[in-house]
Amino acid sequence: MNEQPLVEQFADAKGSSYQRYLHMFVGQESLAALLRYEILTGLLGPMPGALGYFLRGKCYPRLLQQMGRGTIIGRSVVLRSPGRICLGENVLIDDQAVLDAKGLASAVELGNQILLGRNSILSCNDARIRIGNFVSIGPFCFFASKSHITIGSNVSIGSGTHMMAGGHAFDDPDTPIIRQKRVSEGIVVEDDVWIGSGSRLLDGVTIGRNSIIGAGAVVTADIPAHAVAVGIPARVIRQRRHRPPPYGGGLEENTFRA
Known about the structure:
It contains 4 helices and 25 strands. It is of the alpha/beta class. 16% of the residues lie in helices and 30% in strands. The chain has one domain: UDP N-Acetylglucosamine Acyltransferase, domain 1 (3 Solenoid), CATH 2.160.10.10.
């Protein structure tokens, strides 16, 4: 993980503006990569209507590391370091979303049948974000990874949810916090989870499988599997599985009532 604050990386006097642009946005240090990035995103990115969807579907695989069949890129979607972005099949990236994979160690990997809502941001800084299959992410979500954010399959994430996988050390009161060491343990969301709108998941937490996070909750500690958690900070108020399944069988009937 790059310990240098992003504001310092961008303003590093050792690199020219051209080199910083290649590092932060294009992700490759070649004129050919720059021209391809500028032409495709500049001309096709804001293009409206069916023609825009069609041309982005045909041309954006030349930018991305991978783009599966049936994947649709909306209007004015921002791609940073697109060569480190993998999209599976039947992915829909809605208008004005941001996929940011800056940093040599970064990767943004989306599985199959993913919906990323309008104005949502997936942002890495020498880190990774990995999402499984059949995941719905509402509009205006913000996922920032300084190490890793891992989201399983069959997950529903409400609008305005934030996942903040990283922070600052603050041990030295005489040094500005922004200049102190970056710390990150990462965030894990297991399979079959529903996260309500406006939730906040802080660094280091794991959300167990088949659990529910209530709208507006702030998750500061691990949530066990099959739990319903609400509040600030989030606390478990009930279990969705009220007794063990017989003979190791499947889940009991869902006991949660909205």
